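step 4 of 6: structure.
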Amino acid sequence: MQENSRLKRLTISSLISLSGVLLLVWISLETMEERNHLGHPELWSGYSLLATLILLALFNIRKRLSMLPQLGSAYLWHQLHIVGGMLSITLYILHVDTWWLVAGYERWLSISFYLAIGSGVLGFLIQIYYPKRLTEIGHELIFERIPDAIVDIRTEAMQVIEENIKTTQSETLLRFYEESLDHYFRRPHFIPQHIIGSQAAEFWLKKRFAAVRHLSNADELLTLQKLEALAVNKNRIDQQYAFQWVMKLWLFIHIPSVIALLLFIFWHFLLVNIYAL
Amino acid sequence: MSDLNTKFPERWSNPFAKDMGDEQVENLLKVFAHIDATHFPTSLPLEGIFRNDCRIRKFKPGDLIIREGDYGGNAFFILEGNACVVRKPSLPEKMLGRKTIKKRNSLFALSQLFKKSIAEYRSTNKDDVSYNNSEMETVNLYDSSLAQEVFSGPENPITKKPELSKKYHALTLNSGIWLGEIAALARRPRTATVFAETEVQAMEIRWQGLRDIRIYDEVIRNIIDDSYRNNMLKTILASSPYFSHIQEDESLNVIAQLATFENHGNFEWSQSYKDATDVGFGSSIETVIAHEGDYADCAFIVAGGFGRVSLRFGQGHHTLNYLKAGDVFGLPELFEAWQDNQYSPAFRTSLSTLGYLQLLRIPAKIIQTHVFNKKSISYQTYDNKTLKKFSMADNALLEWAVEKRLINGTQVMLIDQDRCVRCDDCVRACANGHDNNPRFIRHGKTFANWMVTNACMHCSDPVCMIGCPTGAIHRIVDGTVIINDDTCIGCASCANSCPYHNIRMVEIRDKKGQFILDDKQEPRLKATKCDLCASQPGGPACVRACPHDALRRVDFQTQVSLS
Amino acid sequence: MSNQNTNFDQSAYERPDCKHRCGRHRFWQKACWQGPNHKGQCGGTSECQPIKNGERFECTRPARAGGPCDSPNPDGSCSQQHQPCKPKLSIGSWHKRFNYLTILATITLIVSFAFIANPFIDQPGHAGPMINPGPLSAKHEIFTDQQSCQNCHNNHNQKLLDWFLSAFKHQDLSSACTECHLFEGNPLAAHQNEFDNNNTYAQQRIECVRCHTEHQGKSGNITPIDNITCSNCHNKSFSLFANKNNQNTANQHTEFNKNYPYQQKQNIYFDHLKHIDQYFVEEQYLTSKRDVKFAQLAAQSCTACHDIQNAIREVKPQPYAKICMSCHDSQIMESQLTLLSTDLEIAELSPIAMSLLGTGDAEELAEQVIAAIKKGEMKGLFNSSNQQQQMWSGLNPIEAKVAVETWATGEPYVAEIADKEMTPYGWLIGEDTNGDEAIFYKAKGHADPTLKAWIEQLLQKAQSHKNQDNELIAEALDLLLDKQGPGACGKCHAAGLNANLSTAKQNTMQMVWGYKNKQYARHTIYSHKPHINLMGQKEGCDNCHIFDKKADTTPYFKHKGQQPDKYQAAFLAITKKTCSECHTQEKIISDCTTCHRYHGPSSYKIGFMSKSSNVSKQKNQLNNQVNTKQETSHD
């Protein structure tokens, strides 16, 4: 099953990539041809770039139209989107002389393009890297249910401590909870550290637990084990939260920058055709 | 009579028919006077079975009683009149009045995108569902446009209606005959169409009632077993590619004499499965029917349930494959022995039960005489080298799926967690096709990077259908299990039965967003689940919606195993 | 251990399309099971709606919310009440908000900075930075004060809808340029249609802005073109003229034409090699009749003959009087043009005269002329025109009549004015150089107008009889243009004519008397001056113009039987190597525009200045550029 799927994906990706390369070659040749007689090479590269960007933007609409089988699978569109993105970078280079455009709106246009492409590439990398990390962590949770899971941990932790107090008549663990775990169990923590793959959270927990272990008797140690298990679980949840949050956040940069880009392109189209052609 | 403390079956709180009066119950007791009521326990009296698990049905000449291919949990007993069972060939599909799901066109499908409806909105204009809604509206064959062509035989002197054309092999069944007991007991589709030749009065009994009668009464047990045996055996042989060439009745009779049915495991495996998985451990290997290395003196055909084919591996067993109804075990070994004149063939793999397994055991000699001698078939077998070179990681997913009984599913929603970016596009696509109501949740059991999502798997043995009082949950011809929202009464028996927790009860709302309340002022519930987008163009939208090719609907046997 | 309970009664559907989520998540509390309603308001203030069962009320809280609680309130209300939450937006809703905000911000940015003038620019009517691509060059800026951008961009300042719709119509920006700038030929054709060939690229329209981009700022100079622009069309694109080692690499300029710059054949019989090697140095030629000193000088230095002071594209030879007369003047006055001669018995017309009169018997023609002379109506024999008058300039008709009458008596004619010495030139009547009595003409000197008129008249006649075999005309031409013919005109001036006559394509028989300017391709330029300044007058010529001693110049320079196809210049062709000794990397600039021009002569349309309101100011600034402007120092 995996082999077949891999082969199918490879076939689709290869075909689409090949088409993209052929398209690029064709447009480059036409552009060069245009340049050869001091024609309008920017028209070729410009309209191709526009068509490519519109195709890329249509992906967002396709995502809402899965009920129509005639449109093809979202995977196919995604591959088109990736290849189209690469194509748009090369077409942009063909179209534009310099990396930093200075005049008026063109600067905004180029900034929005760079933002769109940059966030797109970043998103592509995020979508390759983070799902595997999430699988490795395990403890899969739907993002919207993370607060509920944290509440459950918090509740269980309190219950465990209350039981311990009844048994041992000692408030050591309660104090430990108030000093360390109360804040920790309130909401996700160590988000930036999790994003970059640091072990800071585990280290912090180890330190805190090590500190209280010295002050605990045998019963409390048993309770501490339960608390530690809960804390480790909470840490996994935090990791889930961090990675899933990143996987949702990048789109908040990508889509608005694309919207801005398309609006600036429309303005560019107007100005070029009214003033320059 | 029972006292107040007697615990009757829970299903009797929802009797099969509301209108089973004393007179009708008395009548049935008279008909079945040969059954000794004293054999039945006080918690399960015969009279109670007749009152709560049976109903009387009346059919006019031409009325369909049983439709071939339907899944049904009820059996019939003809009280009066004659019925006709059509064997071969089958009646034209158009005559049978099978309800098909009307597929929406693309434009309508697109318009769903712009419908912003309240979650689980239902119109309150519809009438209350009739409790006695039968799973099948009455279809009369004489009313069909094809009636003239099909009923082109001579006129029946009694009914004054034309008989079936000679090309149909049909059999008349008189009163006192059981119908549909195989489908009811084995959870298999109906094997033939039965219609009323004359005015027919029949007792319809749900399978639980039939099962209980069979347990406590030997006569009925024998009748049913014989009938089951004869019909089932012929059905199994006819549908198996290795035996379908056997047409002569003599050969069939010989096989019937010497072949034996065996039942292993628990027919109600789903309940034990739920109990087992609820406490967190899966089921380990169960009854072993054939051991690897044993002398192979027979072959097995699976009649029902699931069997595991495995190989000894260290202290455990490595699953190679699983077998469903129609699959064969032990045939390659016998064939090789017959070819090489080897006198001591041995099973190369082990066969064990997965929950419940019904087998037809056929002795080696019969196979040699009636199969190997008469038909050349290519056998797929496992080479010793192939078998031995498996690593532990091979088939691990299948192993796990077998353990969790996920092999029951024909459309298991598997999500590759290494590719899934948790974007929920699949859930949105599902919601778009169901009035903004998703029909699965993106969570479930996981193995390595594979998650089996809580979406209906459309099992080959759909235990959820057991116990539906209205037949709202039914199976259509292509195997999709669908809940008819209009006829669902929200009793939650399907949701409770599903061992995988893939059916969810939802509180339905009116146009103001308030819960719709029933007579008792409780929020009315409806059972909901994945229907494979049966009414949408193009099949399941979730698969099309995933931009990373992470989601697929699989049948573990065809897509994961070695065969 | 899993963090989520997947049981059907513990886990409800997630609805990512819903606009809101339970607000308790804001504080990391557990969401209520009902969730916000479709209006976005809290739906979970009560955890259930208790139902009455007999006398008691029962809790209906579902299993996923914890199952039924201990007991509802006695009045039937739910005992588990909460403050209403403020539902938070779902991720989908946040996306929508961000998107709408972006659309709003972008449109606001564009609109506000496009149609509202930039307050920092102190010029009304200028477009904001969202339209304005930058300031104009100083030269064009003075035209934009009145109508601003509309001077060039017709669509600016229109009504909004028209302005928008003009994006879908073709504009002609180049017409704004050509409204003021004039060029020879079609300014939008490659090199102004100089090359009338079938090259498809050359036929296509090339907009002005392809090479000249405005809006580069006040100090921007839009005239200069870099090499890359030229190499757009010229497929052998080269990045340099020559590399410093003169190695022949692929990215260098192509080699010059084979015979550059001597492709054009000379129209004056001047054989450089003969003159330099023989006529200027050999004793036999350095007679007293010639200016020996000059000859010696000329043998050493090109500038003795070529006018180096006015050297531009060419270094033209100086006038006849300065360089040729000292040797050739004596030859001019030696031979004569005979009209009529007689040995006192029979009068004969010269073939030259006869050919001009037309066909007819020689004797009859002679009698015709004699009769005309006797009547004093000789000029009437030939069609009257200015040329005709010049032909007879100085001929006394009375004297001619007397001479003819005298000859008829068999006596030689003696001029009446006996004591007046006969001038040795002009129309003469009496004994000629051959000893016959004749009416004849002798050249006064170089460029004698009468002889010139006679030659041109005969050439006209030959032109009109071009396709006919006319022996008389041919004979007459031979006589007239012989190197020892009348005035010795043909000695030097028939080279180009002969070349014309002997080729199949004889479009015109026209003598080009003066030094024929070379026809240079408009797109190449060269100026001798800076080169001479650098290399010196005396030795400078030799650097590039090297005599080709092996050249066989004879076939072209012979008068009878000239072979114009075998013209060989007396100099070796100038190769790229010659130029690249200096014009190479790291030495002297060698851009395309150093030697090439795209446009030919250009000028401004009259009245273009009126476009600007500040005419007087501009007149001061552009004082010298109002009239026709030639390309600086070239052509």
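step 5 of 6: annotate
 - Confidence is low (pLDDT under 50) at residues 119-125, 626-635 of chain C.
 - Strands of chain C lie at 20-21, 51-53, 56-58, 88-89, 181-183, 336-342, 347-349, 426-431, 437-442, 602-604.
step 6 of 6: archive
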